[in-house]
Each structure stands twice: as structure tokens, then as C-alpha cells.
Amino acid sequence: MAHVFVLPADAQLVRLPPHAGAPPRRYAVTADRLYELTAVDGHGSLLIEPAAARASARVVVATPTPGYALLLDTLASHADKFLAASDVVSFATAAVPALAAVPEAVLVRGLPAVCDTVDGGAEPCFRLSTDRLVAHVRACAARAAACLPPPLAARAADLTAPPLAAPPDVVDAAAAAAPAARLRLALAAAVRPLPPALAATVTAAAAPDFAALDAVLTSLAALKAPVLAAANPNAPKAAKKTAARKSAGVRKPARPAGQRSLKAFFG
């Protein structure tokens, strides 16, 4: 499969774990910004030639991501004290040596927005503030919801798209729920860089009540189910066959030790 990379100028590619215990992710680093690399479907992209190759190609794009997120494990483990910015970076780099590839200025840029700050004389000192982090993520998600990247915007539109010939009240309810669907996806994207424990805390505190959205989505799913079943009449049979195989204890043959799948090998 072909990959086309769309990267900032003078970017350095690095692999970093986003938080303790996580597998590394791919990032691009410049002198003043950190980007996470994400592969998207290249179908229809004018960046790929010849056109026949677009169906199977992937475009790897660089999405800005907050450098401070890579310091949150360190800040959380010293939540009872103020640390100089350079000390935060030193502790984090000692735990994850690959962080040395990211300029200190990129890592600490967002700390004032998510930390309590005091003047340490030579440099500011920071202590993680959950309240500030929640407020910051909530504001970021609200801004992002208004201009979601195309893949997320398409997903939000699909979630709240009513079926053809839906009653007017369903169409109206779906339209009214669309902003909440966009906000939920934006919030999920905003907490993705955070360590899991912090992400769960921030999501619970920052999310509005999505009960009305969930009710609309449940109604839409019920209306779409017959349409989807008619479009794919073999789906129930396939599901029953899979369930029967599982109940009978049929499993795929085990892969020999040390043998990697093609998907794992090529990413």
C-alpha cells in the first residue's frame, strides 16, 4: 500500500509514547510545534498519481497536538508541589529519553493553561490543576466542534443523518442533535492526547449532558436498521454463522510464535 506524507517543512519524525505504558505513536516535530501523524483514506486525493492508485493509497497527515500532554504523567506524579519548567522536562525526559527530540519550548508552551503557576525567579514553576485542564479542554473542544477535520465532520454527519422519507419531526430532531454530535467527537479528540486516567476525569467533568443526543441516535438507529438490513440481506446470516462458530469453539489457527501478520508488518 502506498503512503503519501503531508508534513510541515523541516519536520523531524519521532516515535514517542503519549503516556506511561502506552505504545509509541508517530509524531513530527518542528522548532515550535508538535504534530501527531495520522493515516487517512487517500481515495479522491489529488496528491496521489496516477489516479488508479488512489483507491488503495493512504495519506499521512500531521495534526497539531499539545506538547504539554507529554508532560502530564510527570506533573500528575508531582501534583503536590510546584516544579520549575526545566525540572518538569528533565523528569519527563529521564522517564522517556525519546522526549529529548522535542524542543523544551514546544513541551512547556501550554503549561500555563493547565497548571497553577508561580514565579520561580529564573523561570516559572507549575503544578497541575485539574480544574484548569478541564476548562482548557472544554474550550478547545468547543472551538474544534465548529470546524471539525473532514473525517470527523463526515462521521458526525453520518451519525445524525436521518433515513430517507423520515418523518419531519425526526428530521428536525436529527438537525437539532447535530451540534451535540460534533461536540462529542471534538471532546473525544481533545482528550485523546491525555493519559487515560486524566482523560476519563476530564471527559466526565467537561462533557455536557448528552442524554438528548443519545435518545436521538437510538431513534435514528431503529429507523435505519430495516434499511440497512434490506441493503445487506446476508448480514444476519453472516452474524449467525460467526456466532455458531464461536459457540462451537471454532477458532482461527494460531499464528506460529514470532510470525507477524502482514498488517502488523506494514502498519
Question: Top keywords for this entry?
Answer:
single chain, 267 residues, alpha+beta, N-terminal domain of TfIIb, 3 domains, five-stranded mixed beta sheet, three-stranded antiparallel beta sheet, 8 strands, 47% helix, globular, disordered C terminus
How would you characterize this protein structure?
With 267 residues, this protein is α+β, with helices and mostly antiparallel strands. It folds into three domains: 65 residues, Single Sheet (N-terminal domain of TfIIb); 62 residues; 80 residues, no CATH class. The chain has eleven helices and eight strands. A five-stranded mixed β-sheet has the order 1-5-4-3-2, with no helix packed on it. Helix 6 packs antiparallel against helix 7. The longest helix is centred in the last third of the chain and has 24 residues. The protein starts with a strand and ends with a helix.
Average per-residue pLDDT, rounded, comes to 84
**Largest sheet properties:** 5 strands, mixed
Oligomer: single chain
How many separate domains make up the residues?
Answer: 3
Quick structural gist:
It contains 11 helices and 8 strands.
Write the layout of secondary structure elements.
Blueprint: E1 3-6, E2 12-16, E3 25-29, E4 34-41, E5 58-64, H1 72-77, E6 83-84, H2 85-95, H3 104-108, H4 111-114, E7 115-119, E8 124-128, H5 130-145, H6 150-159, H7 168-191, H8 196-206, H9 211-231, H10 235-247, H11 262-266
Parallel strand pairs: 1-5
Antiparallel strand pairs: 2-3, 3-4, 4-5, 6-8, 7-8
